[in-house]
Design brief:
Blueprint lengths: L8 H29 L1
Keywords: Membrane, Transmembrane, Transmembrane helix
Length: about 40
Amino acid sequence: MVTPASHGSLPFSINLTAIGLHLLLSGSQLTTFWFPVR
């Protein structure tokens, strides 16, 4: 799938950063939830 740089790469990088931040937040919430239980 080939898209122009002005339309394709910028939203893609924004989506990647949003997914990365979401994974980091969910991961930190999981660790803070699981470690006190143990």
